[in-house]
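Below is a concrete protein record.
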Amino acid sequence: MKIAQDIIIRPVITEESMAEVAEKKYTFEVAKSATKIDVAKAVEKLFEVKVAKVNTMNVKGHKRTYGRFTGYKADWKKAIVTLTEDSKTIEFFDGMF
């Protein structure tokens, strides 16, 4: 089994994801092999919160042009984690406002 730091790669900070913070929904980039259960356990361990639900999705890499060469960025996996009502918030995201 992987450790929590290997499952949660980085938080996703976008305008849309920050709007969901008020509803206790947090977005993370996760390992491609991670399951919903792995993500839930990793978030609970790293941030000491209670997870109600996890939604995962695979994101295709965007097409990029470098001079006369074209290619694609890497594919990655995104997880939207919803916390329970009685759970505390994740302090990292609170500092973003």
